[in-house]
Write a structure and sequence with these properties.
There is one protein chain. This protein has helices at residues 2-19, 23-27, 32-48, 74-81, 119-125, 156-163, 186-191; strands at residues 104-109, 115-118, 128-135, 146-155, 171-176, 181-185, 195-200, 203-204, 214-216, 229-235. The chain is α+β, with helices and mostly antiparallel strands. The strands form 2 sheets. The protein has a 5-stranded mixed beta sheet. Strands 3, 4, 7, 8 and 9 form a 5-stranded antiparallel beta sheet that branches. It is elongated.
Length: 264
């Protein structure tokens, strides 16, 4: 009877050690042969330069995805871009507030049919709506100074056709209401789907980026997105201006232009 009680007590103590994490105490009672075999295997692996064998789990699996067509709400666009008007988008100091459709644009210079017309008349003749991206050239990866919007505007290519630009012209100079001038090669603007926008996400520009109109181009830093344009001057220059961003290095490729839809 004493032996039975002793065996029961030892069994209870062993179970308690297992439950409480006392594996070390029980390991000391492992058979001597098993311990010697394990030690010999480890020494053999070390001598041969082979790392001790380990259990390998299967490779983790998952999905990675991104969407460059997600539209940025106007409330966020206004918060990000209107608060930094002195540094972004070549903005005027004080945006004029009026009906953007009544805003008049003049196309002049080396053209056969110069004109001055309100935006609504030009828009009724030719208008496009396309998803485009606008970002600051200095915006780093995962930076906030980038937006994607549904942009509606007048194609610059249409303005050139309507004004009957002469052969050999190579430069467009966009003139803002405050006198700001921005000269860009014609091929660059047309090749990057340049539009003079008057609506962003189905609202006037005042609800988002500010102003009455704004030049938008794909794959171009936002500081070339001049606003409140009153004149587009078409000229033939002996030395045309450099492409926007020529020779500049950005921390993040700016405005990696998306263009998901175009509606005439």
């Amino acid at each position: 009877m004493q032996d039975i009680k002793k065996n029961v007590l030892l069994g209870t103590m062993a179970a308690t050690l297992v439950i409480s994490g006392g594996g070390t105490a029980l390991a000391e009672e492992a058979p001597q042969g098993a311990s010697d075999a394990s030690s010999a295997s480890t020494k053999a692996d070390a001598a041969s330069g082979v790392a001790p064998s380990v259990n390998e789990a299967e490779a983790s699996q998952g999905e990675f995805a991104y969407d460059q067509t997600a539209i940025t709400p106007n409330s966020i666009i206004k918060d990000v871009f209107q608060r930094a008007t002195a540094a972004l988008c070549n903005a005027t100091d004080d945006f004029a507030v009026s009906n953007p459709l009544e805003w008049k644009i003049t196309v002049s210079g080396d053209v056969d049919q110069a004109f001055t017309l309100p935006v609504d008349e030009l828009a009724s003749e030719s208008s496009v709506q396309q998803v485009m991206t606008c970002t600051c050239g200095g915006n780093p990866a995962d930076g906030k100074a980038i937006i994607t919007a549904d942009v509606k505007g007048i194609p610059v290519s249409y303005l050139l056709d309507r004004a009957e630009a002469r052969s050999g012209v190579n430069t467009l100079t966009f003139v803002s209401s405050d006198g700001t001038e921005l000269a860009i090669p014609i091929a660059y603007v047309v090749g990057r789907h340049g539009v003079i926008s008057y609506e962003i996400n189905d609202e006037d520009l005042s609800a988002s980026v500010g102003g009455n109109n704004q030049l938008w181009m794909t794959r171009t830093s936002a500081n070339y997105f001049v606003r409140d344009i009153v004149e587009v001057r078409v000229t033939s220059e002996a030395t045309p201006p450099e492409n926007p961003g020529e020779g500049m290095e950005y921390p993040n490729s700016p405005n990696v232009g998306i263009l998901s839809a175009e509606i005439g």
